[in-house]
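Reproducibility note. Readers wishing to regenerate the assembly model reported in the main text can use the exact inputs given here. Chain order matters: entities are listed in the order in which they were concatenated for prediction.
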Amino acid sequence: MPSAAVLKVLVVDDQNSVRQMTRMTLEQIGIRHIHEAENGKAAMDTASLQPLDLIISDFNMPEMDGLALLRAVRGHPAARKVPFILLTGRGDRELVVKAAQAGANNYLIKPFNADILRQKIEQVMGKLS
Amino acid sequence: MASLEQLKLTFFDECSEALQQIEAGLTDIREGAGGEDTINAVFRSVHSVKGGAGIFGFDGLVSFAHVFETVLDAMRSGKLAATPDVVDVLLPANDVLTDLVGMSRSGEAIPPDLGSESRAALEHLLHGSGAEGDAGDAAAAPADFEGLDFMPVRIDDFDNGDDGAEASYRIVFRPKPELLQKANEPLYIVRELRKLGELDLVAECDRLPPLAELEHDRPYIGWTGTLKTSAKREQIDEVFEFVVDDCELTIEKLGTTSDAPTDPSPVKEIAETAAPPLQPAMPAAGHPTEAEARNGAANAGAARAAAAAPPRATAAKAAPVGATTTRVELEKIDRVVNMVGELVIAQAMLGQVVHTLPEDVSGRLTQVLDEVVHHTRELKDSVMSMRAQAVNAVFQRMPRLVRELATKTAKKVRLEMAGENTEVDRSIIERLGDPLTHIIRNSIDHGIEAPADRAAIGKPEEGTIRLSAEHRGGRIVIEIKDDGAGINSERVLKKAKDRGLVNADATLSDDEINNLIFLPGFSTAEKVSDISGRGVGMDVVRRNIQDVGGRISLKSDRGRGMTIQLALPLTLAVMDGMVIRVGVETYVMPMSAIVECLRPPASDIHNLIGTPGMLKLRGNLVPLVQLCELLDISSTATASDERVVIITDAGEGARFGILVDELCGHQQVVVKSIEESYGSVPGIAGATILGNGRVAFILDVEKLSDIASSRNGQAELAVTRIASRG
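Running the prediction on these inputs yields the following structure tokens for the assembly.
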């Protein structure tokens, strides 16, 4: 049973407001170690520098998009096993399918609240304490 | 800490930026300048608006942005060509998006039909082009993907790479009326169940009554089927935890299926019976968590390249290399600006103290003080440049305006722009949009002739409007120049006389006549047209410009075109001023209004009856204004040749002299508004605190000349006044 307080989560989104909102929601469920990156490239930099427990990433970003990030993560020796939750909008169904095929562990639809976020994380990580 | 409200503000700031980029990008595409990158950038901007709107729960915005995005996606993937016709649908769509963002920001209710026309046009593009798109279903789209069974991959499963022991369960689930009465939703339960594994349910519709007998609060449908899952029995039970007493429920284990072939993809489409529309999930709860020592939304992790108004050429692309930016709340910068203001005052005070010291002590101090003055000035400039924004923020709206107006008036107009990157204070940028729009409207409506008329007089059919900005002498000068017909001075004069704006027998120079159009109540249009005749005249434009301490002037060359020039201060907070004394009072006059100062011999001042005098200056007569009389204070200067005359430039070529007792020196002053506390005082632009701690008023030179002329109504000044309206 992973403890929320020790989980290290990376939030990737090119929009500051979305990152902050996600951060706030993560904090509501007790997650305290939150890294942020504004695109896939920055996320890979973070992911290769430190151990992460979870990546929550948007899809459409400049530089390196979510799908490219997911593939890069899955191909990275150290980050290969980090669970990946895709952040998506309504109607992006095709992307969800693509992401699932590329190895995403779950998806999260905007808008989401703390309950949904917890549920999605727990589906991937097991129950949080 | 970041509260939800702050986050929303951040989001709306991002939106403003995105909207600007969309506009700029679309304009580039329209002009054939945008490549694939531009379309991508526009797409991303719309997507960002949609994404953010989604997370903050602005559903109307999401729904419209979605259609918009779908069209752009079709363009991106080459299914839809980026023709001008298409862009002409997208530009109004961006207006709708702008409106929606505005309404979401102000919390206004969004009328359901808002943008329906634009939306229909967008959808038409999609269908017309054959580009597939599910644009229409966005509004009705549920907060989860119907029928898409994305099986979350458990991390421990993922770890060892196999799916673990799976078991199949037979599930029978028939809700009872009580279930609905307790506000439970069977579909949610089905969906929860599906999250545990591979679910294959069949709806039992046999209990459905004929439509007439259907009661909305009774559950008629039940489900039977199998669930293939690695989840434990307890987890399945948990799904039904709250409804177990209100339904008929069977969960039976069928045996492990670990030998069953597993689908390589965790995604599987499954059929589901009619799904009622579902409430989208609530936006993240409005309880800001109590924060650790972390910065607010504005700067936490805000390394995002956020050039507030990137240069036009790069607007739709990534910020130029090396120009890393950070997002700072305007309020924070304003606080720094204020502090710099206080510093300027404190420094002036220090200067006064130093002057009273004996020479041997003050010598060294003065040296150091000079250094401080120098640094303060640099500090001020740096802070001001933080608030500065390229005029492009306003300019970029103009190409479209010109295009639309040209279409409407059936004229051919080309817009040239120069100096878009010239920077000026944000507060000025904000107030530049309306005047510029109005001037350009006027130009196209009244200035530029119809193509046939132009051809007849040997001009190219296409008219040209040139919009330029540059820094000149501590001001920003914006010029709008067209090659149209110019001002018809006879008509203007006649109109002005008809309306009693000038005396019927007045003789005025061409320049004076041209400046008449700035008078309130003047409209040159023969008939009120759809475009510029909306009751807002050039007088309003002039007032807008004057309100920010700017000047507007006009030059017209009959038949060749006309030029309107706006000269604006770079900032409104700190300015260079000349401290003057009249009697016992001290005032500050903006340096920008001063042309020269002199102490003329009494013989050069000619007294005309009923006037304070005329000064003979290098062969020209310049009307004089007695500041002491205007402000009703007594002068201490005994002889007129002790007085100083400040020649001011209230407008194009219209000069007049202000008589004061003494010039006390030039210094930077911090402008403090008095309007908030005292309302608008004619002749006074604001107040400042001097080095000696006293408050001094800053004079509004232009208004002073108005007051002077209205007091004595003398012909010369009236002319000056009219001319000075330029």
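We highlight two features of this model. Residues 108 and 116 of chain A are 8 Å apart (CA to CA). Strands of chain A lie at 8-12, 33-37, 54-58, 84-88, 106-109.
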